[in-house]
Design a protein that fits this description.
Layout: E1 2-6, H1 14-23, H2 25-30, E2 33-35, H3 46-51, H4 59-63, H5 69-90, E3 96-100, H6 103-107, H7 111-121, E4 127-134, H8 137-150, H9 164-168, H10 178-189, E5 194-198, H11 209-216, H12 236-248, H13 255-271, H14 281-289, H15 292-303, H16 325-340
Parallel strand pairs: 1-3, 1-4, 2-3, 4-5
Helix pairs in contact: 7-10, 10-15, 12-13, 12-16
């Protein structure tokens, strides 16, 4: 049985792909493609968590109350047993087993972690195909900034600052280092299994990431793709309000704080959409160029040509932009009145 693993990366339309796969899993199964559910519905989030090193933790591990190592090991054993049973059952009617989680990209940051994943999966499958979307790092960082705000975090900057210690060691932040990402998956699953794709509307089949993914796994145009709702872009003023509230509630891990934040995000999406915070052209270029050598190596090895991404930055402002104070006050006042009602 062949296994297709969609590993993200994060901020490349994974949620839209997963919603489509989960909604259409019966139809896909009739074409011999089984969509994994034992590791999570839509996003198979549990599987990368199971192979993340035990000394590491994240929101998923904490949310599942798995910080104690023995409890985590027991949970992992049960999960892998459940997945094994699902694979054996799926093999009766399907030739392909599809796993999808962008957290493979963000959680499995060492070669040993990916090797351990392969060691387990190779007991269940005969061959593998690893699909990975790559997005230009500055655009990826801005999308992540917005996601972190919605999730209740208070990121220090639009674009992550340089890490001096990593720079001295000539090591790139693993989240944005696509050469290291593809290399560790190649070491584990074999270079012939890796199928990187560019996350760009002009490069998508049909101009849509879901349709592009379906084509990548071998499905043709007889699978119509309906538009999937996506997060509304928040205006720079809305982001400023959310950042301020997140800072104020940073240490308030209560149900009331979560309800307040959730209500605020919903209000902002409905009443304050617009152009999000943007770095200047110079800032975006400086951030992007940190990864140029890594990107060029990926372009040569996996695509046979350079560059990996276009180098168009004209969408960014030349000078720093500031949020409109009057608009900020209008948003805060509107939200307070909305809550009163």
């Amino acid at each position: 049985m062949r296994c297709i693993i969609h590993i993200g990366t994060e901020k490349t339309g994974s949620t839209s792909i997963q919603k489509y796969l989960h909604t259409n899993r019966s139809r896909l199964n009739s074409d011999g493609i089984h969509i994994c559910t034992s590791a999570g519905k839509g996003n198979n989030r549990a599987l990368p968590a199971a192979f993340m090193s035990l000394h590491k933790s994240d929101d998923f591990i904490r949310g599942m109350n798995l910080d104690r190592i023995e409890k985590r090991k027991s949970w992992r054993a049960k999960l892998l047993g459940k997945l094994s049973r699902e694979v054996r059952k799926a093999a009766r009617s399907a030739s392909v087993f599809l796993i999808s989680s962008e957290h493979f990209h963000s959680c499995l940051l060492t070669t040993d972690e990916v090797l351990e994943l392969h060691a387990f999966l190779s007991t269940l499958f005969d061959e593998f195909e690893i699909i990975c979307y790559l997005r230009r790092q500055d655009k990826m960082a801005l999308s992540r900034y917005s996601q972190e705000l919605r999730a209740g975090y208070a990121p220090a900057a639009l674009l992550p600052p340089q890490n001096i210690a990593m720079e001295e060691k000539k090591v790139l932040p693993p989240y944005f280092d696509f050469e290291a990402l593809l290399s560790r998956w190649s070491q584990a699953f074999g270079e012939a299994s890796i199928r990187p794709r560019i996350y760009s509307k002009i490069d998508f089949v049909g101009g849509d990431v879901v349709e592009d993914f379906l084509r990548a796994i071998g499905l043709k145009a007889n699978y119509p793709v309906k538009a999937v709702s996506r997060n509304v872009a928040l205006s720079s003023e809305a982001q400023a309000v959310l950042l301020s509230v997140n800072k104020a509630l940073m240490h308030e891990d209560t149900a009331e704080a979560k309800r307040l934040r959730s209500a605020l995000v919903k209000y902002l999406e409905q009443n304050a959409p617009g152009k999000s915070c943007q770095p200047t052209i110079a800032e975006a270029q400086e951030f992007y160029h940190r990864f140029l050598a890594s990107n060029n190596a990926v372009a040569r090895r996996w695509f046979g040509e350079e560059p990996l991404f276009d180098a168009e930055f004209s969408e960014y402002p030349a000078e720093p932009q500031s949020a409109c104070t009057d608009r900020l006050m209008d948003i805060i006042t509107g939200f307070m009145l909305d809550r009163r009602v």
